[in-house]
Amino acid sequence: MLIQNIADKKFKSIPAHGGEGLIHMKFFHQEYQRFREVDDLPEPDPSYERTQWNFIAYAELPTGSTIAEHEHKDNDEFYFILEGEAMMRVDDDTKKIKKGDIVLTRAGSKHSVYDVKKRLKFFAFEILQRGN
């Protein structure tokens, strides 16, 4: 069993897909190579080859910061909004997101977050679409 506690993790402040400002993230149970350098992770356990996720992250997006439009070709991504309010665009659909919302962005969809009215706090879960 592997247990990680959010209080034990330090924020990593990184640009969000070329958006304005920075996003502050804490990464958990990840195998995604893109974030290994950010979180100083060791090489994954070989059992990770059986997993279906890229990463789980707690994130905070301050007012004035954005997540620029981007696409995950082989990954679905869920956003579980804990606090805050912003606008989110997925392909041609734009909606306000707020506390309690769970948003799914499908593999291949273009999505972005902007117009953060109140610091957005959320969990992001990126899930591999293996076998495509």
How would you describe what is shown here?
The chain is mostly beta strands and 132 residues long. The protein has a domain at 17-32 and 53-128: Jelly Rolls (Sandwich), CATH 2.60.120.10. 5% of the residues lie in helices and 52% in strands. The protein has 1 helix and 8 strands; from the N terminus they run E-E-H-E-E-E-E-E-E. It has one helix spanning 33-39; strands spanning 12-14, 23-28, 53-61, 67-71, 75-90, 93-98, 102-105, 110-128. The model is unreliable at 32-36 (pLDDT under 50).
In CATH, the homologous superfamily of the domain at 17-32 and 53-128 goes by the name Jelly Rolls
Distance between the termini: 30 Å
Unreliable spans are 32-36
- The percent range for strand residues is over 45%
Structural class by helix and strand composition: mainly beta
Q: Classify the fold: give the CATH topology of the domain at 17-32 and 53-128.
A: Jelly Rolls
